Amino acid sequence: MARIAPSLEEYSTRYENIKLERTDGVLLLTVHSDDKSLIWTAQAHDELAYCFQDISCDPDNKVVVLTGAGDAFCAEIDFSSFDLGTASDWSQIIFEGQRLLNNLLSIDVPVIAAINGPATVHPEIAVLSDITIASDTTVFQDAPHFPNGIVPGDGAHIAWTHILGPQRGRYFLLTGQELNAQQALDFAVVNEVLPADQVLPRAMELAATIAVKPALARRYSRVILTRELKRLMHEQLALGLTHEALGALSL
User: Fold this and answer.
1) Does residue 1 carry a pLDDT above 60?
2) Which of 141, 156, 210, 217 is the most buried (most CB within 10 A)?
3) pTM attached to this predicted model
């Protein structure tokens, strides 16, 4: 029977903002803009959604390591790349926004984040990983949303109140709080903090130890460990995105 699931050779060259390399079943996903730190755009937003789907359907992926190029994970956004003026525009954002996080969580093998520096634009993507290793230069902030008068409804409201807890999560989102690497470690947002040049090697070391475990142990561990997050996304993500759209259209 011909293979139906996508192969790495098929999807690895599909995306401009994503570099994919696999060694012994460990898939390294690096987000970037022209091989430099990622600038968040509408294209990057949509590419990640579809790339996560490709990854989730490829049985040759044993572990996924997510990192960024340059000295920041993602600390810039190009608002001009987004069409946000009409209800029709927002309908597309709502569609893609749900796919982005739901497809990330649909990856049924462990995901490790190697955060190489500031993550102030959509940092929830990194911290929704099963294991998160951060550089000592990392700063977390949900910069694009409430600081700019925008409802943090595209998953930030779920991720941060879940990871930080309700009280700290609300404070983080409503005040534009910046968490440095040590605070993130103290608040259990990340698991380890290391010098920048040690972050990716440590993530790859952990990935290698996981990759040799039995396939079903890896897969079903991910399934049960993400079940609550999937439930929260199912219940709240579309509602949050819709409220974000309503708030933005009133500006």
Assistant:
1) no
2) 156
3) 0.96
